[in-house]
Amino acid sequence: MVEMLIASSIGAFVVLAIQQQLQWQTGVQHLKISRAILLLSAQATANQLFDALQSSAATHVSNPQNGCYLFPQQNGGAIGVRVRNNQLQHNSMTLDCSGYGWQSLTDKSQFKVTRFTAESYASVSPVGGLPKLLITLTVDRRGEDFDFKRLITLSVN
Fold first, then answer.
1. Sheet with strand 68-72: strands edge to edge
2. Are 135 and 49 in contact (CB under 8 A)?
3. In this predicted model, what pLDDT tens digit does every residue of 103-123 receive, in sequence order?
4. Is 147 helix (H, G, I), strand (E, B) or coil?
5. What is the C-alpha separation between 10 and 3, in angstroms, rounded?
6. First vs last Cα of the chain: how many Å apart?
7. Measuring CA to CA, which residue among 120, 61, 63, 53 is closest to residue 97?
8. Per the confidence metrics, is the pTM higher than 0.70?
9. How far apart are CA 58 and CA 65, in angstroms?
10. pLDDT at 148
11. Strand pairing of 62-65 and 68-72?
12. Residues 92-101: tens digit of each pLDDT
């Protein structure tokens, strides 16, 4: 009888150890999947913004207010981009940063946008010297920052 009690106790400890190991592995897999979803979602948002700015005619970046950028378009309008309340917002038909029509491109429950910057560069080469924009989008999830950068060559007509 004593041997049965010892064997069942050892069996119970083994089962508990295996169960804890499986739960830990499930948690690790969930964390990896969650991070991959974040990166894909943030990359999709960044690509959407980068594509919208591709048609920009800016040879300079207008930053009239802190954190709000205006990118002149070839049609005479401007695209506005800003970070408000940890969300990336854009306005495809604005001439200033205080107007109406701002739309959020992100959902802060998925990730927080902490920074958006745009720097313009003029090429020194006389041949093929098109202006360029360096766009940086920084997102945060649970204290971990991810940067998305793209150098956009602007079309000039």
1. 62-65, 68-72, 78-84, 87-91, 103-104
2. yes
3. 888 877 778 888 888 887 765
4. strand
5. 11
6. 92
7. 63
8. no
9. 17
10. 83
11. antiparallel
12. 877 777 778 8
